[in-house]
Amino acid sequence: MSSILFYLNGQRVVVDRPDLDMTLLQYLRSTGLTGTKLGCGEGGCGACTVMVSRYDTDESRIIHASVNACLCPLVTIDGKHVITVEGLGTSAKPHPVQERIALLHGSQCGFCTPGFVMSLYTLLRNKPSPTEREIEECFDGNLCRCTGYRPILDAAKTFADMAWKQGTVARDGSARVAEARAGCGIDGCCRLQQQSPEAAAAALTNGGDSAIVHDPTRAPTAIANGGCSKGSAECGKGSAECGKGSAGCGKGSAGCCKVQRRHDSGHAEEGTAAINQAEADKAAVISRFQRYDPTQELIFPPFLIRYAKRTTSDSEPQLGPLDIASTDAHSWCKRYVRPLTLSALLVALKQHPDAKLVAGNSEVGVEIKLKRSKFPTQIYVNDIAELRLVSETPEGVAFGANITLARLEQALDSLAAKHGAQRTQSLSALRENLRCFAGNQIRNVATIAGNIATASPISDLNPVLLAAGATLALASADGQRCVPISEFFLGYRRTALQPGEVLVSVSVPFNKAGEVVRAFKQAKRKDDDIAIVTCGLRVLVDESQRVLDAAFAYGGVAPTTVLARSAAKAAIGGTWGDRSVLDRVLGACQQELQLDYAAPGGMAEYRTALTTSFLFKFWAISCCALRIACAESAFAHELGEDEERAVSKARQEYAPVEDRAIVGKGVAHLAALKQATGEARYVDDMPGLAGELHMGLVLSTRAHARILGIDAEKALALPGAVRVLTARDVPGENHWNIFRDEEILPADTVLYYGQPLALVLATTQKIAQEAARLVSVAYEDLPAVLSIRDAVARSSFYDETRQLTNGDVDAALAAADLVLDGESYCGAQEHFYLETMGAIAVPKGEDGEMEVFASTQNPTEAQMVVAEVLGLPASRVVCRVKRMGGGFGGKESRSVLIAAFAALGAHHTGRSVRIALDRDEDMQVSGQRHPFLGKWTVGVTREGRILGMRARIYSNGGFSHDLSIGVLERAVSHLDNCYRMPATDFVGRVCRTNTQSNTAFRSFGGCQGMFLSENMLCEVADHLGLSVDYVREINLYRAGDVTPFSQTLDDWNIPLMWTQLKAKARYDERRQAVDEFNRLSTHRKRGLAMLPTKFGISFGVKHLNQGMALVHVYMDGSVLVAHGGTEMGQGLHTKMAMVAAETLELPLESIFISETATNTAANTSPTAASASSDLNGFAVYNACKELADRLRPYRQRMAGEPFAKIAKTAYLDRCNLTAAGHYCTPDIGFNWMKNEGLLYFYFTQGVAIAEVELDTLTGSHSTLRVDIIMDVGRSLNKAIDIGQIEGAFAQGQGWTTTEEFLYFPNGRLFTTGPGNYKIPSAMDIPRDFRVDLLEGSDTSVLKTIFSSKGVGEPPLFLGASVFFALRDAVIAKRREVGVKGRLSMESPATPEILRMACEDQLAQMARIPGTLKQGKTSFVIRI
Fold first, then answer.
1. In whole angstroms, what is the distance from residue 787 CA to residue 958 CA?
2. Mean pLDDT of the 444-462 span
3. Does residue 1278 surpass a pLDDT of 50?
4. Judging by beta carbons within 10 Å of its beta carbon (0-12, 13-18, 19+), is residue 1027 exposed, middle or buried?
5. Does the pLDDT at position 933 exceed 60?
6. Residue 987 contacts residue 1020 (beta carbons within 8 Å)
């Protein structure tokens, strides 16, 4: 057979001679199903998730599996049913999953949303009433960079089994009542208080329905706030009589669930009314959800059941073996074979002994995508039923080699239940490691055989199998043999498999009495992460506790999985529980597995420490399990893996908006439903034009070198390759950016590893990328500088310096009781927007006109640079931005280069050109958050009050200026954070290095400046023996204080919020509880930190502080708004539409925003600096105000008439229904030389408290709880602002914990994708996450649109509260083991940093002496 048959969203599809290199994702997108996204290409982000269903003949049931379409070869889909996000519903008629994620604010940029939808949908198809834990775990293969996950989890949990009891889902067919008598499904719902079912139903029906405003021209009524459903005229009662209003339901303070007595200042005073409108809004939305009915899903096609059973009629297609030869001479895969029996597989292997066996393609697919490996012959083995069997004997269990890991999990659970815990310890250890093995999408397709046969040195399963004494059954055409797994691994990626041989099954013996087996794994992130070190540990003792046998197997410490034989030998014969045996075993393990400082993989000391730490854990746990009384067994309860992590919960709180019809309400993102259904279009979703070309990049393989020549001959010989462009082909200006120190394409010098040197144009992306790799570049190497410390040592700086000097620092230091010097470092951070950079350039065919569709935050700069590169007036270039799949500053300037590349290709070919970077290309080409190094001297009193501070801070700017000076200015001006420093001397420099040009990133230097000073405060507190939170509190600014940049704090709410949050979050009580926990716990420590932030809002460049808008009112009453901001998930378009609707007194549904384009919004500022709502909001307001004024006479004359009729009348009266609005921030402008002027228009402020728990033996941690209060003024949209706070917090948490950006010493980027760069996952967020908006503060001094404040960037630094809580936990451990003095801890605080900072005996044992480090460089480095 040479064709495949499958179903796609219920429709039969037959593909004859399919492209053997094509993935399912590529196929889907080629057919127009672009809802499934490409986020990484390595199965690490989940954006490409689809559901693949098949009929399992072994179990006689249909199996639904979430699958990474980016790794799934199209040819493997034969006989299966594929459902994509488009197959579920539309924005007009969404599936309940799509509806709930969208309307409960689970979609911001929307690029990841289809993947989350499909993961949840798959879970529901398998289990229509899942538990909350199952829901959280179903997302372990999905990443989101915008939301912080909380709203996604909240929405998903409305499907939980408990939600039926709490009223989240309608059971009686009513979409409105929703089991109101029990509650709304929200944790802590006020309606779960004692009340009658009738009262609860009434409250749910009437309460909080403010998400949709039907008649915004009327004043808001009490019904929007959960009160009286009658208008004031109809009611007949005054506010004093009514008892309802906005305060509650009329039962009075004793009975109404909405009247809460609070003691924390700033919220409602005791005995007064306070409504949590966030809860009311959520309840109102939930009450309108459609009922989820599992019986109405797309059925599995009955034909496919017969097809799988091979019972189709002769006239129908029949399942059979596949043998497909490629018809493309340049295909990487030349032949694809799919046998259906083991015997057929062995025959195929004999015919093709060099063939690559493919099962889940999770390993092979990554090798093809990232390593560009080619496997000409591939044999697909996952449809062989004989290799999926599970069989038992009295001695143990044999698992078919091709059982998927998901199926293995189920089998292990069943076996443990059947045979009991003692006999299945090895099986349970396998199950433990599978729990954190990759994501669901990978486990659903990856197999045991694949995990074993790849011989990965960091395999999760192999150490457990090795410790358990597993045996492997191998087969070939010549027969079968059994091999102990201890003899299977021969070296790095080498095994005992002979040519033509295949792994058939894995046998794991049952455990005996007196035997204990455990598995441990450590990674940078808890879920969906590759191991740093993993192990399987086993001991067998007799009745006298004498060790009869032991096996300690490790991965991640050698080229292959290894047994620590010396350690096992040291144990055998000894008495388990005897401390001398433990010391002997630990010493032997340490000596046997000590890594060289330059060992591949890096982290040599940490990995060595993990080997002994795991062994110590095992000793304590096994002694406890064997009931051996020893000192260490008392620690067993601390040392097990946290198998039952608490299911996350969250609470958001804000007050109702009573004086506005629309602005301030918690309206869902206007595009959320389109994003959840896959209808929302991003740049690469746009259909290709006839003759369109694709672009590939030729990237430098040197960090610093002269270009001696570029040879494109081989590239152009590739069929489909059209042209190669170099610097010589730039018709206009080849230099760009503010300082003109960067070339579009380098003419003669390479300045960083991964720099684009040439552009390849071809008919497909695959050919373009292949041809780019065939371009040959000759280099002459030059010295390279990579890190800040190297740059400082070599005085490699850009010319500019930024300084803020106030008072006499020398005198302040002289008067201080204590003067400390120190150094602090915070690392880089990758933006990891889910949509990589891309652009499409379309030549218009006359006058040189060029239309550019770009994923950019800066359409005006894209327009201007494209025009300059092509030598055109800017008026000939139009840049359009519909939306972005995330930006976070990364697409403010660096995206311009990508647009210029596309335009250059289109200019030379006269054809449309498309460029969409792969994830690894994006991370190599684009810049990141600037790493910073700070050197400081501070003088304080013995009480901890700051008298003066001198700081010299340095950023790693990379190879060009880009925006580094602006980042530096904000860092220098945020060194004070929220603290009064009477005398300051701050100086900042930007280092010139041979790395990517680091660029804007959410918080834009502010978080780095604040971090350096917060670290300083921590070291001051260490030295003085004080609580750092106390030191923070006594140094807080007070209203009227003046900052180092001469700005008086007249809108200052930090002291108020500090007091509020401290009381509401019960800080003092929790501090005592944490201290008590640490007193009683030896190896787990908790930490608590309270952190403030202030973030200045304004562009540092004066002329950028302006916005514009163009508003059209059409004759039918609809309104089109264009403004200068771009939508990247932050809800800007939604807020602008709300401003327009409020100002024009129209329903929100009347307002439409199509895109941002330079021909409708000219000379715009980038969407950045958290100022876009301020600038564009006022511009929209000004335009709409002008239109409202023009229309007022018509509205007065035609009172009560529809607005469409009013608009038509005005048009016929020749009234201008178009208005342009402009706004410029008043009073702004700062002179750095004189330290005078207004640097920031205002400050957005916040306070957070974080509580964590740290495993001091591994460095693994959990964030137990986070409380945040944020001052956002009078919010334009409270729900969107809450989402921005949570999302920014998660980014800040990632920046300071899991996200480690690393380079090889030659300048090549090491962290090039989700495989080795770890943003937080859904399981990393706080288990208890509480966010409040400050209410009732004086906003009279704010001159902003509707007295709101920018919110996108300011909360990010609060994520560092997790870092400082972890530091607090480390300090507790250091204090316990007798380590005194200050702790200087770098960020990010990875498990490596945290574990080694504890400085206990095992950590000290793992330290490599300095003499053994001399002349060696670590495998990877921070810069």
1. 9
2. 93
3. yes
4. middle
5. yes
6. no
Mean pLDDT of 539-566: 96
Summarize the confidence of residues 1325-1331 as an average pLDDT.
97
Residue (of 432, 175, 128) closest to 290 by Cα position:
175
Question: Does pLDDT of 130 surpass 60?
Answer: yes
Cα→Cα distances 1363→382, 532, 1018, 1030, Å: 44, 21, 12, 17
Coil, strand or helix: which one is 829?
strand
Q: Is residue 178 scored above 60 in pLDDT?
A: no
* Average confidence (pLDDT) over 446-474: 95
Segment (H or E) for 1297: none
Q: Is 214 left (phi over 0), alpha (psi -120 to 50) or beta?
A: alpha
Burial class (CB in 10 A: 0-12, 13-18, 19+), 821: exposed
Is 108's pLDDT higher than 60? yes
List all residues 6 or more positions away from 236 whose beta carbon is below 8 Å from its beta carbon. Answer: none
1145 is catalytic: no
Q: What are phi and psi of 1243, to 5 degrees?
A: -125, 130
Cα 769 from Cα 756, distance rounded (Å): 13
For strands 1151-1152 and 983-992, give the pairing: unpaired
Please tell me the predicted confidence (pLDDT) of residue 745. 98
Burial of residue 1226 (number of CB atoms within 10 Å: 0-12, 13-18, 19+): exposed
Cβ atoms of residues 210 and 282 within 8 Å:
no
Q: Is 825 exposed, middle or buried (0-12, 13-18, 19+ CB in 10 A)?
A: buried
User: What is the three-class DSSP state of 720?
Assistant: coil
Distance CA 192, CA 194 (A): 6
The strand pairing partners of 1109, in sequence order, are 1123, 1221
Q: What burial letters (b/e) apply to 163-186, b meaning 16+ CB within 10 Å?
A: bbebbbbbeeeeeebbbbbbbbbb
Q: What is the pLDDT of residue 256?
A: 40
The CA radius of gyration of the chain, in Å to the nearest whole number, is 32
Distance CA 309, CA 311 (A): 5
Spatial separation of the C-alpha atoms in residues 312 and 305, rounded to whole Å? 9
User: 3-class DSSP state for residue 419?
Assistant: helix
Tokens representing residue 127 in the block: 């289990």
Query: How do strand 797-806 and strand 776-781 relate by DSSP bridges?
Result: unpaired
Q: What is the mean pLDDT of residues 758-762?
A: 98
Task: With a cut of 80, say whether residue 264 has pLDDT above it.
Answer: no
Q: Can you list the positions of beta strands (E) in 844-917?
A: 850-854, 877-881, 913-916
One of 1353, 1376, 1392, 1399 is an active-site residue; which one?
Answer: 1353
Q: Beta 1119-1123 vs 1151-1152: how paired, if at all?
A: parallel
Helix (H) / strand (E) element for 329: namely none
C-alpha–C-alpha distance, residues 280 and 275, integer Å: 8
Q: Please, are residues 67 and 144 in contact by the beta-carbon 8 Å criterion?
A: no
Amino acid occupying residue 572? I
Contact 618, 241 (CB under 8 A): no
Buried b (16+ CB within 10 A) or exposed e, 532-546: bbbbbbbbbbeeebe
Both tokens of residue 464?
């457990």
Structure tokens at 1353: 């960037």
Q: Which residue has the tokens 């089991």?
A: 179
pTM: 0.93
Does the structure show a pLDDT above 80 at 781?
Answer: yes
Mean of the pLDDT values across residues 1300-1329? Answer: 95
Whether 252 shows a pLDDT value over 80: the answer reads no
User: CB-based contacts of 89: which residues, under 8 Å, 6+ apart?
Assistant: 95, 98, 99, 677
| Closest to 76 measured CA to CA, from 431, 445, 377, 417 | 445
- What is the per-residue pLDDT across 1240-1262, written as a single tens digit (0 to 9) for each? 999 999 999 999 999 999 999 99
Residues 84 and 374 sit within 8 Å (Cβ to Cβ): no
Q: Are strands 1218-1224 and 11-16 parallel, antiparallel or unpaired?
A: unpaired
Q: Is the peptide bond before 1388 cis (omega within 30 degrees of 0)?
A: yes
User: What residue type is 267 in one-letter code?
Assistant: H
